[in-house]
Amino acid sequence: MEQINIQIRTPFIKLEQLMKLAGLVDTGGLAKGIIQDGHVKVNGEVCTMRGKKIRNGDTVTVEDYAVTVEAPLEETT
Questions:
Q1: What distance in Å separates the CA atoms of residue 15 and residue 17, rounded to the nearest whole number?
Q2: Helix (H, G, I), strand (E, B), or coil: what is residue 12?
Q3: Contact at 8 Å (CB) between 21 and 27?
Q4: Neighbours of 77 (CB within 10 A)
């Protein structure tokens, strides 16, 4: 499995945006289809929500690719 590390500057990124940023898909429409068909796992569990918020340390798996996100931690007030 190929490991991809992605750094973002915000506390989270939506699943379909991450897939595009990591180069796993070319379009949001393609990401939507792959996600809704159950081919995407977030932290080992199938995820069918394309707007799922992916945060620091989360790993998204698609086929033979594992994408891990490095993000600033959200501030709690």
A1: 5
A2: strand
A3: no
A4: 3
Beta-carbon contacts of residue 1 (< 8 Å; ≥ 6 apart): 61, 64, 65, 66
d(CA 25, CA 28): 8
Which tokens is 48 given? 């069918």
How many other CB atoms sit within 10 Å of the CB of residue 61? 19
Return per-residue pLDDT of the chain as tens, 77 residues: 999 999 999 999 999 999 999 999 999 999 999 999 999 999 999 999 999 999 999 999 999 999 999 999 877 66
Output the CA–CA distances (angstroms, integers) from residue 39 to 14, 33, 76, in the order listed.
16, 9, 33
User: Distance of alpha carbon 57 from its chain centroid, rounded?
Assistant: 11
The helix (H) or strand (E) run that includes residue 39 is none
